[in-house]
Amino acid sequence: MNRQFTLPFLLLICSSCLIAQQTSTILRGVITDSSGAILPAAQVTLTSPAGQIKTAVADANGVYVFRDVAPGDYTVRSSTPQLVLLEPVQVSLTSGTRTLNLQLDVAPLSERVEVNTDAPPTIGTAAQENASALVMRGSDLDALSDDSEDLLADLQALAGPSAGPNGGSIYVDGFSGGELPSKESIREVRINQNPFSPEYDKVGYGRIEVITKPGTNHFHGNLNYNLDTDAWNTRNPYSAIKAPLLLNEFENTISGTLGKRASFTLDANQNNVDNGSIVNAVTLDQQTFVASPFFDVFKTIQRRTRLYPRIDYQLNDKNTLTFRYAFTHGDIQGAGIGAFDLVSRGYHTRYMTQTVQVIESALLGPNAVNETRFQYYRNAMQMLPNSLSPEIQVLGSFNGGGAQIGHSSDAQDNYEFQNITTLARGAHAWRFGVRARLQRDDNVSPLYFNGTFTFDGGVEPVLNANNQPVIDSSGQPVLAQTTSIERYRRTILFQSLGMSAIQTSALGGGPTQFTIGSGASGLTVSQFDVGLFAGDDWQIRPNITLNLGLRYEAQDNIHDWRDFAPRIGVAWAPGAGPRNARPKLVVRAGFGVFYDRFMLANTLTAERYNGIDQQQYVFTNPTFFPNVPSMASLNQLQSTQVIQQVSPNLHAPFILQSAVTLERQLPRSSTVAVTYTNSYGPNALRSQDINAPLPGTYVPGVQNSGMYPLGHPGAVFLMESSGRYNQNQFIVNVNSKLSQSLSLSGSYVLNRAMSDTDGVTTFPADPYDLRGEYGPAATDARHRFTLSGTVDTKWNIRFSPLITLQSGLPFDITTGNDLYGTTLLNSRPGIATDTTRPGLVSTPYGLLDPNPIPSETLLSRNAGRGPGQMAVNLRIAKTFGLGPLRESNSSRAASGAQEAKGVKGIFSAPSNNRRYSLTFGMSFRNLLNHNNPGPIIGNLTSPLFGRANQLAGAVNGEGFSENADNRRLEMQTRFTF
Description:
The protein is mostly beta strands. It has a 22-stranded antiparallel barrel, surrounded by four helices. The radius of gyration is 31 Å and the shape is elongated.
């Protein structure tokens, strides 16, 4: 399939190289900073002796172009947020093409007020000028949270839902993975920019690109302190008492010069967070044997230290070198507690990450820039459980016992090499390069080595006050659907009465499953992947730009070597005005193929549970609860071993992405973009049990019953690329810079995403009947609205709102039972046709049968729909100037004159004429105290079915969490010098 796209695009790229170059007067060049990094969206002005001014904006490759310029002498100026061309350049133009590369430096403090860091939004035919993108710098970037966890959440909210099933992606200085730097180190953030660029492997919609700052040529710094305490916050609605929270964060940045050729930046951060982990479960009183809601709060102590030194060194006039090192050490005591997990399930985790980045930039000539990038990233983690006892998992009620992670550790080494060349010539701007990555994982995981007892509900006898079955008129026990906690209650009660396991089971008690692992806990795996790309931004005419690209990817741990990914985009400005004038209307269209790599974690899982290195045994209706026999004894009992494999025919999943956009320049420095996108994934990842008992041969609850296709009992989970994904989105983006004091950005997304899988861990409910698997995808949030901005007042107070509204996400409804002999408890209920059948459950989704008969239609996947979400965040900050004056009256007058053109009255551009500044701020998270429920419980046997037991949001990748309270108020102080 990929070959049919490859040849036409290769021909298009080659043909673009054969177009004759224009012979009119052209001025062009590449804009970089002092570290040699290219500067997309940098502004350039060309001023004639008569005072006539033309403007241009650098494209995504840092290339600016002035066409059809009259011969003569001109003055060139350029700037971008916090960077400026320190001295104007005089240039004399004659016929032909003149190349003038520009290098911007950090603006001295005395000059920064005159640098326009918040340029009004405009549109154009260049790829980086799409109005659906959001570029945050200056005051818009200041408006985001200082807290690293909240900053990431803010960026993801602004990026919106990604096109495709796997969410958005984040790149820091062009590198994939790694850590998000502190906000003070970020120069700008680009969201959804140039979505069809061949440089990136991920889909552009939902992509976040973070660009960090080089060092300054003057000693400069920011000292930040953030404080939050539960005394200011509101109670978490899923806790009976207010949970404790104490946040102390120190985030400091210092930069300066190391001589004429070098500069440095140093970030030093310390995050201390005592967060209340909230348990909201249904447990059993061991004395009265009564099930009741259970609430508990445990103070999880979280500590994190970060150091980020960076050095920029200019080797010579054409070569610059950037070195960056990042060190993070974290310690979390009481991880893993909360929601259904009791305090006994906690564990202690320690981790250390180190990142080394080296970037060398070289000017290869008047038209070419080459960047060589290398990154080494290491993440080492250890986890130690507080208890080594077996786990007791009562589905949808509580999880007790010990954490089944054992004394585990994981050390990941990631190497990434990139070499990218930008070449500008005539109407073409080429960008091509290669990225190679090597991942290695040393993993020790004695998972489930202590054993897990699982209790689910089901159709069981109704018991009277004497705990005897109720008999109907025909002499048969009356049956009814019971919950998981009721099954656990009967187990504990009947054991206390001295009943045997067989007697307990006959009365609806006893665990449903017992899972235990054994074998070698240590394993080392590795993966290598490579990607090559080439792209050409070809300005066919002043009002038409064609973007052509091709990418090729491959990796060594799957048998798939034909991953060609063509990309094409076109932008047309119908009825464009004079040359170099900004168009009022632009129409864009694009198409691209985007591959996802098969994750190394999947390879690790398959090699671990291959039945040789490590074994995972599942016992149905075990009779030895609560004791765990020795492995020698267990080997004599009948069990089922679970084996996991990767399909030899697996292909890297890919998305066919297409989009059409209509952009319009509006009055008062505003733009609007209306976009339609379609994302189609014909080979999404999912898993199946290829050794499930044949239909009608398995007796639920009877170990190893049925006929098995492979001739022996035991589940064989096969990871394969047989799923499908289809998404349609209608997106409206509005960006407005009404004045230097008022800017707003908003978006609305109408989304419909359908699939038959939500990832490689998705299994069909019935392994032999895939009907009903195609339904709403996990990303199917139908409506989403975001609004952000900055409002500056004449009192030097800045208001920065961020509002997100989203309709509910789907959730799957299951019986909590294994009805098909797969060892999985993911069976879905049937839609009842016989209302007299025992055990039926009345739900908002109809009358459901937890034990469906062949004549019943199974409920489709993700048939449930959770409530909507609303988050209103607000940041308020006031700045006080301290120390001597640092700007001239003329620059203040210029600033005032510029603001006079904007909105008057209480709005005013912020001004600080002093060398130092002190800022006091307050950050409100969930200002309206709205309850945003977390994942909805879809297990029919749970006493909390259809509800949530925690707030939305999860811990970050490091395990940090700050979700103890519902509405949070964080006090922030910043001293700048």
